[in-house]
Amino acid sequence: MSWPSVVLIARARECAAIEAEIRSLGVGKHPLGVGEFLHWNGNSYALDFSGDVLADFAPEEIEDAARRIGEPPRVIYVSCQSMDAARIFLSFVLPRFTGLIDTNHGDVVEFAEFVDLIEKHPRWDWRLTEVADLLQGQGDDA
Fold first, then answer.
1. d(CA 113, CA 11)
2. What is the pTM of this model?
3. In angstroms, what is the C-alpha Rg of the chain?
4. Which of 4, 48, 66, 74 could bridge 15 with an S-S bond, Cβ 3.0-4.6 Å?
5. Buried-state track 15-39, b at ≥16 Cβ within 10 A, e below 16
6. What is the pLDDT averaged over residues 7-15?
């Protein structure tokens, strides 16, 4: 399976603070020359702070995100070498910020709810189990 990826969606000011936090961990140029890269805590992450991924969103998704966060959204794309790496990274970064996370698998949830789900279901793979199924107890945490 490919590297799990998510899109962090937040207000401009919040997105800038998230980017600064992530960059403080040691972001550098991707070894293959495609974007930016972070090797942190024994894991690797590909990052895109440009906001270009917003072009992949449907207009109604952008409108919904803007309504939910209170202003036009800014985005950060994060791709992680494994699901374990994703859970570690997102659990570290997200608790200090407010915004939405798009799992790229049908769910867009608030940062706090996402972190809570990771804590309650430490083996959750959002590529395989949607949030609604997880909350109903139907999803497998693996």
1. 17
2. 0.91
3. 14
4. 74
5. beebbeebeeeebeebeeeebbbbe
6. 97
Separation of alpha carbons 18 and 123, rounded Å: 25
111 pLDDT higher than 90: yes
Amino acid at 15: C
CA distance 74 to 7: 10
- How far is the C-alpha of 74 from the C-alpha of 8, rounded, in Å? 8
Burial class (CB in 10 A: 0-12, 13-18, 19+), 67: exposed
pLDDT confidence tier of residue 112, bands split at 50, 70 and 90:
very high
Amino acid at 37: F
